Predict the structure of Cytochrome P450.
Amino acid sequence: MLKTYFSSQYRQSCNLIQELEHLKCLENIYEYFSQYSFTSFFVSTLGISENEIFGDLRRFGQIESKFQDLLNGLILNPFVSPKIWCKWFPAGKGVDKFINDGIPYVAEIIKSKKKQHKDILSYVENSDEVCLIDLLLTVGNQISNERQIFNELILFATAASENTGFVLASCFILLAIHPDIQEKVYKEILDTIGDSYEDISNLKYTEAVLWETLRIFPPTPFIGRKCHVDIDLGDKVLPAGASCLISTYHIQRDPTNWVEPLKFDPARFLPENQFKIKPYSFLGFSAGSRDCIGKAHAMMQMKTTVANVVRNFKITTNYKSIEELQLESVITMRVVNKSNCYFEPRK
């Protein structure tokens, strides 16, 4: 399935190159790449071409960028049920409107899919080019209408676009701050890259750059877990049944886990150095049996995008150090201060 998505992701990155040639400067790189990741995810998972409802989809992505801010209102009101929140609270009404506005897009795609493939189950079982919505349509009675399918898609899309968009934007800022590392990525791309999925998988240094970006700027600063047994922490015991929050942000910047934790050093994640990483000191995609199910898809999208952008542009920024970036957490991590990047076409 990843190979099926690759061609779509590559085309999306080519569209991105054309946009950056005109924009040259991104004054809010985080919002821009959140929308880019959202659109890319929907195009690949819906199995549509870039010309199909693409303008509307981009506008829909802009609406989605406000979605987390609205949803945060529900998280901060744990004693209010989602139904009451959506009906009576302004933020809840905004989320409900977002969902209602999105359903027609999905309904149109579902209609097209059913028209193309009379027997969707047979198509999924025998085709090499299956996308997420094809799989959702095979669930049958468990997902009965467009709204339920849209809810499933938006769950995946929001998680994918916010996290992937944040990491991409952070990666480009880090490469701009560290031009020597940017040139290493550029050289690897020139030496390795073609236009196939196998070429992308061979970008080991570029992949290490993304892992190191995830370490310094984890898009999800906290993950929640429930203890199934008593856990002895030395002077304290977490009792079975207790819920706890694990700070990936602090673990991945802890000097007892990482030498010079605020130094951007992708070499930490090169294959020959990975044995030095302490178990569970890196939680970029979580870990264990409940790690991120979309990590392979996310890494492929990010590597494809970074490779195409760095191959075509030299990236600069006004920032001089990592410490200058001020962070806050909504549901995912955000950068508070203005975050601009400049993209100068390579000659």
DSSP finds 14 helices and nine strands in the chain.
